[in-house]
Amino acid sequence: MAYDPNMRASDTDRDRTASLLREHLAAGRLTPEEFSERLDRAFSARTLGEIDSLLKDLPSIDLYRLPDAELTRRPRQADQRSGHRSGHRAAWRAAWGSWFTVVLLCFVVWGLTGAGYVWPLWVALPWGVVLAGGWVTTSALRSGSAHQSIEGGSSQGRLPSGDEDLPGRPPR
Q1: Residue 59 neighbours by CB under 8 Å, 6+ apart
Q2: What pLDDT is stored for residue 145 in this prediction?
Q3: 3-state helix, strand, coil in the chain (%, to 5)
Q4: What gap in Å lies between CA 68 and CA 168, rounded to an integer?
Q5: Which of 3, 43, 152, 163 is the most buried (most CB within 10 A)?
Q6: Separation of alpha carbons 18 and 152, rounded Å
Q7: Nearest to 143 by CA among 90, 100, 84
Q8: Domain spans of the chain?
Q9: pLDDT of 89-108, one tens digit each?
């Protein structure tokens, strides 16, 4: 579609123009009075030609190259497994922290009540054993069989079949 200055402007066109005017104000190309006047005219513009006349004496700016455009989310290019490991550690820290907090609270209640029988052990030991078993099991799986498959996906938690190349082992 060819450019026609008489074509009706959309809300998106007016918003984009307002963003451009803000950037020119921030760069010092417009005074606050000029900015305010042009902003009012931008939001009341009916055609693309009216919008273009507001920007005619200003250099073009690519809004996608501005610093705030860099804040968009991108896929990580670092080793994905290191991210999984740090997330793994944070999850276990949270789990052990919860266990410690609850057990500490139970012992404080036990100490304040003066009960002779050490009932908080019934909370601490089973929960601690389950946590420790899960921690040991997942740590062994992550260190023993964590590698990337040919398709690029993770095959963590899957035991090697023997015909795959593993990290640290020369290819066959």
Answers
A1: 29
A2: 52
A3: 60, 0, 35
A4: 42
A5: 43
A6: 43
A7: 84
A8: 11-71, 80-145
A9: 788 888 888 999 999 999 99
State the distance between the two ends of the chain, measured CA to CA, in whole angstroms: 57
Beta strands in the chain (DSSP E): none
Q: What CA–CA distances, in Å, run from 155 to 31, 42, 108, 150, 162?
A: 58, 54, 44, 10, 14
Count how many Cα atoms sit within 13 Å of the Cα of residue 3 in the half-sphere of its side chain: 5
Please give the residue that has the higher pLDDT: either 9 or 142: 9
Token digits of residue 99: 């266990």
Task: Please check whether residue 43 is in contact with residue 14, taking contact to mean a CB–CB distance below 8 angstroms.
Answer: yes
Structure tokens at 59: 């250099």
DSSP symbol at 2: -
